[in-house]
From TrEMBL:
Gene3D superfamilies: Vaccinia Virus protein VP39. InterPro entries: Methyltransf_25, SAM-dependent_MTases_sf. It holds the Pfam family Methyltransf_25. Residues 69-164 form the Methyltransferase domain. It comes from the Eukaryota. This is Methyltransferase domain-containing protein. It comes from Cladosporium halotolerans.
Length: 290
């Protein structure tokens, strides 16, 4: 989470605040060496760091139709296309992110198999024309912006085809989202592990990407987040009739989640400087709709 916690309000307009946050950050992220879009454009076989990490655990993608929820600026959607997907439809409610994604797809090999739709993830089934996809894909940094994990699970199940449709997600571990860094490498539990009605509202201009020295600093500071326990996530998917086929916890996450307490270990991944076995930082989950 961030610093400078403020009293949350149940009446807060989280959608507008979050959209403004991502609209401002999208061009900053697109020009950042963290995403390195120039390399993806120049090299027709290059993959994003996130997809490279996921390779050992991804379901077969060749010839598949894929819905990528909360796709941000499109680097992962492009990478899914390059891994053989027949069609990748990315959805994000940030108009600026969708514009960056479309621009990337227009310049990069594999982009011709990508489509990007602007809209709220909770409206995905309606916005994507009630299509049934072979694979629904979600990547790190998605669930914290949503207040209701059960409603999200209904969307996931509603997009999957019956008779073998697959769901794949890698996400920040809820244990990590519950902690804050302290002195001497200590980690303290400061936030709720479980989903609660009230979000955590913070004030910070921080963004997770590397920027050039003297580069633009985001001005939208308000951040509204919810945590969802791992059991809540799994139970929500099971409640929609999905069958869990993989659940793996990882000792790394693709950004410096606890600033000052982590070290970059390669491939865009970060791990704790000390005691890496203390805490899972991310997890991968796969499920099937029989």
């Amino acid at each position: 989470m961030s610093t400078d916690q403020q009293p949350p309000s149940s009446s807060i307009d989280y959608q507008t605040l979050t959209r403004e946050r991502w609209d401002e950050r999208a061009p900053i992220h697109a020009s950042s060496p963290t995403y390195n879009l120039a390399h993806l454009i120049a090299s027709p076989t290059a993959l994003s760091d996130a997809l490279t990490f996921d390779l050992p655990r991804l379901p077969p993608l060749a010839g598949k139709s894929i819905a990528h929820l909360q796709c941000h600026i499109g680097s992962d959607a492009l990478s899914l296309a390059r891994l053989g997907a027949q069609r990748v439809v990315g959805l994000d409610f940030s108009g600026a992110s969708v514009r960056e994604a479309r621009a990337l797809a227009g310049k990069a090999a594999g982009g011709e198999r990508c489509e990007f739709v602007e809209g709220d993830v909770y409206d995905s089934v309606e916005l994507l024309g009630e299509r049934a996809f072979d694979v629904v894909f979600v990547n790190v940094g998605s669930l914290a912006w949503l207040p209701d994990v059960r409603r999200w699970a209904r969307v996931v199940a509603g997009l999957m085809r019956s008779g073998g449709g697959e769901f794949f997600m890698r996400e920040v571990h809820p244990s990590l989202l519950a902690v804050e860094g302290g002195e001497g490498g200590r980690l303290a539990v400061e936030y709720s592990y479980f989903e609660v009605v009230e979000p955590v509202v913070t004030d910070s201009s921080w963004t997770y990407v590397k920027t050039e020295e003297g580069g633009e600093v985001p001005k939208v500071r308000k951040c509204v987040e919810w945590n969802h326990g791992l059991g809540e996530i799994v139970s929500a998917l099971l409640g929609e009739g999905l069958r869990i086929t993989m659940l793996v916890e990882h000792r790394s996450v693709p950004y410096e989640a606890v600033r000052g307490h982590m070290v970059e270990i390669g491939g865009g991944e970060w791990a704790l400087k000390e005691g890496r076995d203390r805490l899972p930082l991310s997890f991968t989950l796969r499920a099937v709709k029989d």
